[in-house]
Write the structure tokens for this entry.
Amino acid sequence: MSYTKAGKQVRESALTSDKEEAKLRLAERMAGLKRPGKATVGNLLDGVLADYRLNGFNLKFAEDKIEGHLRPWFGDRLAESLTKQDIQEFINTKSQGKKHLSNASINRCLALLKRAFNLAELPHPTITMLKEAAPRSGFVEKEKFWEVFNRLPEHQRAPILFAYESGARIQEVLNLRWNQLDWVNGVVRLDPGATKNDEARVIPCSKMMMFYFQRLPRGCEYCFTFQGKHLRSIRTGWLKAVGKSKLLVHDLRRSGVRNLIRAGVPERVAMQISGHKTRSVFDRYNIVSENDLTNAMRSLEKYHEDTVQYDPAKTEESGPQSQDHFSPAIS
């Protein structure tokens, strides 16, 4: 293709043997649009990682998705050759098999792929996100928690209690070190590197939690251990303890957030304790249970009882035609 740029004649290959495609690329060149040339998708993904480092985003999240899924699949492909069919094949493969990804995980991969092209200011095929399942709304009521707690192995009780009280992520709990525990003020101080969003956080501890900390063995840098070694997982003990109820460990996080709100803790403070960075995600965890709804009705009934004299029997006799059964209370 041949065109004029800055008063000079430019000739270059259209990188295609299709005449109509060559005309399209010539039109884009003349419009001043950038094209990827020989850049690979892998080059573009490197740009995403660099952007995450520069802006302090969650680099581990991007690396897991890029190195684990996107680069092995697309890395060597020329960016300009990527098609919608290629992306669909990626989706089809990743959504099947024993190690298949959820729609949510696939969408995170697609979002990173789209960001790679956008950062490079390059056109890309249409990327359509998959429909994601509604967020799980499970939580653990207080009575059920203690029932499960008493069934847990002794060495797993303290970390489960801490997760339930704080709403912290289970890996943040299991990776807790002794040097992060402030005995004087009764709080846990998580360093930026110890949290998912790389932000420091302070978690207050109850008297019961501090009691459990005092009873834990000290032969390791980590607070929670088993046979003197870092406790990396509570999966087996948890599954046995919950039995057929199928409660998830992550339900403790949702429950912790909800309990903080029920206790009257301001939402902004609850978000700081649990480590929720965005309001949208926090709202998904601040779940209203059936008991909450029932208690709301009880509060409404109490309000009516405090302001009017209500006679249910008279209401049944007279029906809804009359409002005489509501008599103003006299103080």
Observations:
- Residues 142-287 form a domain with the hpI Integrase; Chain A fold (CATH 1.10.443.10).
- The chain has four domains: 1-33, 41-119, 142-287, 291-328.
- The mean pLDDT is 81.
- The longest strand covers residues 2-5.
